[in-house]
Amino acid sequence: MKNLIKILPIAAFLSITACDKNQKADQLVTEETTMEAPVAEAPVAATPEEMMAEAQSKPLTTVALSEAAFAFGKMKKGEQKEHVYEVTNTGKNPLIISQVKPGCGCTVPDFTKDPILPGQKGKITLKFDSSSFDGMVSKSAEVYANVEKAPMVLSFTADIQPN
């Protein structure tokens, strides 16, 4: 107890002398030398009209799809599968796929980003995660490209079986 009585006046003195004029005893003084990193802005989702305008701002061409619809058949719940749709540029101008927009977050698209020259082929891959579904499922994705009838729609079905 005697030691506590000796320490209290010292603690009070240190707390008073450690403070700046404009500070209270319970404020912490720190020197901040942090550099602020530039904050990247989140991309703003384009409207279908904006995506269409961007896609059709290039010279138009024609395209042939290997298929517009695909059936995965039976899948176990939680299984992930993907399917590759092949696109062939049948026109006279380069085919530019500007965006592939799936109908929901269960489908992740990937596609040929470089211009597809006339007569050449490109790919659009749709990866499907069945974790949130039971039974028959039908999903689609819109493909925005420099073709007259855009967006093109790719679809797939799956029969999700319980584990």
Beta-strand residue percentage: 35-45%
**First and last CA, distance:** 68 Å
Task: List the uncertain runs.
Answer: 4-44
**Would you count the extended β strands for me?**
8
Number of helices: 2
Order of helices and strands: HHEEEEEEEE
Coarse morphology = elongated
Percent helix range: 10-25%
**In angstroms, what is the radius of gyration?**
30 Å
Spatial sequence of strands, sheet with the most strands: 1-3-6-5
Layout: helices, strands, pairs:
Blueprint: H1 2-17, H2 48-55, E1 63-65, E2 69-76, E3 80-89, E4 97-102, E5 107-111, E6 121-129, E7 135-145, E8 152-161
Parallel strand pairs: 2-8
Antiparallel strand pairs: 1-3, 3-6, 4-7, 5-6, 7-8
Q: Mind explaining what this structure looks like?
A:
This protein has 163 residues and is mainly β. The protein has helices spanning 2-17, 48-55; strands at 63-65, 69-76, 80-89, 97-102, 107-111, 121-129, 135-145, 152-161. Strand 7 (135-145) and strand 8 (152-161) form a beta hairpin. The longest helix is centred in the first third of the chain and has 16 residues, at 2-17. The model is unreliable at 4-44 (pLDDT under 50).
